[in-house]
Amino acid sequence: MHFTVTALGIVDSTQSEVQRRAAAGAPEGTVVTALHQRAGRGRRGHEWWDAPGESLLFSVLLRPDRGPAQTPQLSLVGGLAVAEALAASTGVGARIRWPNDLVVGERKLGGILCEAAAGPPGEPVRVLVGCGINVGQAALPPELAAIATSLRIETGRAAAVADVLGALLAALDRRYRAFREAGLADALPEWRRRSATLGRRVRTPDGEALAADVDADGALLVTDDAGRTRRLSAGEIAHLAAP
User: Fold this and answer.
1) Number of separate helices (H) and strands (E) present in the chain
2) Where residue 159 sits, what CATH number does that domain have?
3) Are residues 219 and 184 part of one domain?
4) Parent domain of 16
5) Bond before 243 cis per omega within 30 degrees
6) Secondary structure (3-state) at 203
7) What proportion of the chain, given as a percentage, has pLDDT over 70?
8) pTM for this structure?
9) Are residues 66 and 173 in the same domain?
């Protein structure tokens, strides 16, 4: 895929900016980066904190030739691409907390947000893939220090945001091509290997359970203490239970 990158300064959010460009006819592969977001958002409407110039903040416009029901699978594809790219380019072995967080140990390094936006009738669904990675922060605010981290904290050295972006887009291109050809099947074995969720106790809307697997659609399969298995979609919360 050909990526066209537009670097902006301060924006409301890169997701909103790409959505506006998609509505105006921007092609697949349109990428918007920002130094800072005034209203960056994460999953389920949560706000995404960033320090101006110290985070990699970008969104990509994709137009997969697949139905809207498969759009949430791109959260897993995107998360895996980011984890692979970070390991190869920085040596940081981030793991994936289902469905879309990148963590080192129990501390969050970044996240992926996939949002579908319907286009004109007959056009492929638009998917906005947003990514935020803590890159250059030498320290984090006290309220975040115990639950978040950065590439600089993990490696002890500064990384160029542009270099990290290049590595992530290359990995996303490879994984997205495979997704378009074969769906999620190609990504699942490696996603399972890099998962920070499988085999752990999680909290679900119905109580605690064991995260047993992800199915062919990317939904989380959990087993409760009575042996019952439930399928959680990406729109539901499954936090790690406290040790």
Assistant:
1) 5, 12
2) 3.30.930.10
3) no
4) 4-193
5) no
6) strand
7) 91
8) 0.91
9) yes
